[in-house]
Design a protein that fits this description.
It is a single chain. The chain is an all-alpha fold and about 500 residues long. It has 2 domains: about 10-215 and about 300-490, MFS general substrate transporter like domains (Growth Hormone, Chain: A); about 230-290. The protein has 19 helices and no strands. The protein has helices at about 10-15, 15-40, 45-50, 50-70, 80-95, 100-130, 135-165, 180-200, 205-220, 230-255, 260-285, 290-300, 300-330, 340-375, 380-395, 405-430, 435-445, 445-465, 470-490. Helix 4 (about 50-70) packs antiparallel against helix 17 (about 435-445), helix 13 (about 300-330) packs antiparallel against helix 14 (about 340-375) and helix 13 (about 300-330) packs parallel to helix 18 (about 445-465). The model is unreliable at about 220-225 (pLDDT under 50).
């Protein structure tokens, strides 16, 4: 039995909540570095403050994915998590710009990002649950449209409030400007409204019906699950990671490296310990959510492993942009690093406009990618998009006019739309339907890990190698996109 094809408006309603999710993310991405600098953060310390966002995603998403796979309530399977995350995220968006200290702002970023992840992760699995295979590219592209649309308004909101409504974009030293505060308040309201719309307008298939769909589709589309990982696999992987983590820690201590670089070493140690613990639990016959998630991680389908490499280099580049766009453009184009100056804040507002440009381009180009994928393939479409994204990033270093920056950010919009749609469309056909949530959550490891790497390494490179010139972080991001484009060609995909 095949899943019924959904109408355009049904797909529209089930994806509408992403408008609110991305409104929150866009406000975060475009303004958090600005908030940190306003509260006294040094430019080379900003990456370590940002680390809360990817770490929360790393922890939250597979857990929420696993839980939503095994949930059924009066609201359904995925929708309870949409709603719970929206409530928490909306409150965090209101509190964040009122942070009196830098460390409170960093803590609120952690809470806000974790809450957004609670809403976001089930949305990816939602497409796999609700749509037949031939509509999944459309489903993820529709999410890309709402992501772009929401982010257009959110990214430009501080600029609009200042230049159209006269709300000040400056404040006393250590105080968040009113234009940023009001933007976050509006974002909290829109986030809640969008999620509630999807919750009320979409019905989910009951578990028995969904299981029948998954059995029928899985026989023809999904790759067969690999054999269950042996206990020795967990132990061996864990011990190797522990050894690498300890060795890297000692090496970093020997060269007196910056604190942010230690995050990679600590991450290896922590994950090594988890693998060892899961190995011991499995040997003892203990089964729980943790053992289930780690077992699924070790048994990923081949296509998922290949896509993981693509995601790593893609999201490393994106995180470089989100962390360093404000610093790079205010310094390279506007010629200032003084966060209290009018010139800096004008530049920061323009960065918000540029973020709006790339998100607007993503919204407009999302459905064009469906057409291109139909004429070529999802792999070719994604490769072309990544190359254009890489060229766009690198070209920023040659531009001195704020207005001309619009051109490369149009290219960023294309690659952003593709990143949000093509890898997920490929993945959805390669994983078992009954584990759609947990595998979508695990897939986000390979979004989060590069972000942690970016937050750990880029601060070190900008400070030690590039002498505080943040524009070089964007050049590195461009090269990373190029590597991702090559790796896409190695991915196994039926389309």
């Amino acid at each position: 039995m095949e899943k019924p094809r959904l109408s355009f408006w049904q797909i529209w309603n089930m994806s509408f909540g992403f408008l609110g999710i991305q409104f929150g993310f866009a406000l975060q991405n475009a303004n958090v570095s600005r908030i940190f600098e306003t509260l006294g953060a040094e430019i080379d310390n900003i990456p370590i403050l940002w680390i809360a966002a990817p770490v929360s995603g790393l922890i939250i998403q597979p857990i929420i994915g696993h839980m939503s796979d095994n949930t059924w309530t009066r609201l359904g399977r995925r929708r309870p998590y949409f709603l719970a995350g929206a409530i928490m995220a909306s409150l965090a968006l209101i509190i964040m710009p009122n942070s009196p200290t830098l460390w409170m702002a960093a803590g609120m970023l952690w809470i806000m990002d974790a809450s957004i992840n609670v809403s976001m992760e089930p949305f990816r699995a939602f497409v796999g649950d609700m749509l037949p295979p031939d509509q999944r590219t459309t489903g993820f592209a529709t999410q890309s449209f709402f992501i772009g649309t929401g982010a257009v308004v959110a990214s430009a909101l501080p600029y609009v409030l200042t230049n159209w409504l006269g709300i000040p974009n400056t404040a006393a030293e250590g105080i968040i400007p009113p234009s940023v505060k009001y933007s976050f308040y509006i974002g909290g309201i829109i986030f809640m409204i969008a999620i509630v719309w999807t919750v009320l307008k979409t019905k989910e298939y009951p578990p028995d019906e969904l299981a029948q769909f998954d059995n029928d589709e899985g026989a023809s589309l999904a790759q067969p699950e690999q054999g269950v990982a042996k206990v020795s696999t967990f132990l061996n992987v864990g011990l190797v990671l522990l050894a690498l983590g300890i060795g890297l820690t000692l090496a970093l201590a020997y060269v007196n490296a910056e604190k942010e670089v230690y995050i990679l070493a600590i991450g290896l140690i922590v994950f090594g310990l988890i693998e060892v613990i899961v190995g011991w639990m499995s040997k003892s016959g203990i089964s729980n959510g943790l053992t289930s998630i780690i077992t699924d991680l070790n048994n990923m389908p081949v296509t998922m492993k290949q896509l993981a490499v693509v995601q790593f280099f893609s999201w490393f580049a994106l995180f470089a942009m989100w962390i360093y766009s404000t610093a790079a453009i205010t310094s390279h184009v506007y010629g200032t690093q003084d966060a209290t100056s009018q010139l800096y804040n004008d530049g920061a507002d323009w960065v918000g406009v540029l973020f709006s440009v790339y998100n607007g381009a993503a919204a407009l180009l999302a459905f064009g990618l469906i057409w291109l994928a139909g004429k070529t393939s999802r792999k070719i479409t994604h490769t072309i998009s990544l190359i254009i994204g890489g060229v766009s990033f690198i070209s920023i270093s040659f531009i001195k006019s704020p207005e001309l920056l619009v051109i490369p950010f149009l290219g960023v919009g294309l690659v952003w739309a593709s990143i949000l749609a093509m890898p997920y469309a490929i993945l959805a056909g390669a994983i078992p339907g009954r584990k759609m949530g947990v595998y979508m959550g695990i897939f986000n490891f390979f979004i989060v890990i590069p972000q942690i790497c970016a937050a750990s390494l880029l601060g070190f490179l900008v400070k030690r190698v590039f002498e505080g010139e943040a524009i070089y972080a964007l050049i590195i991001g461009g090269v990373s996109f190029m590597v991702a484009a090559v790796m896409v060609l190695l991915v196994k995909d039926e389309n």
